[in-house]
Specification:
The protein is mainly alpha-helical. The chain is built from 8 helices and no strands.
Amino acid sequence: MEPTFVDRRRLMGAALAWGALSNLPVAQAAELITPSQSRLLVDVVDAVIPRTDTPGASDVGVHRFLVMALEHGLEGSRDPSLPGPKGRDHLDWLAAHLRQTGEKDIARAVAIVDQAAFAAGPASPPTPWTRIKSLILLGYYMSEAGATQELRYELVPGHWDPDVPVSGDNRAWSSDWTALTFG
């Protein structure tokens, strides 16, 4: 699978959404779904991001985040202009599609659904599964474990060399370009 890159606006929007969603108590999110849906979500998020030397998706509560994210319409999950289920109806869609694979093992069933959703490669059209998977990844990498244990974090990327030879044709570097015109 090819890596997906997120632009700054989408990342900031996700961070704001995460902040807004974090105000909904976890207990309230658990009341929004049935116990069987909750068990299914734990298995599905762990199939996408299993526990290795870092915590798995269910270890950091992605299954609860997914319920809240669907409820609040993240990734277009409640957009009336998009085809497919809306909000928490994604959970019923997911359960039905996992059953249709005929697999008893959730991880293999998830792999089949994933392969079908991304069959066209990067040009694959959005589907309910692509929205669900996107929210699983968002929830995991916005968690403390995902952001600090799974990803490498460097406050200042690269290294600082205090003794760089400077010649007459060197220019200063800027990391702040605001595209403003003065005058």
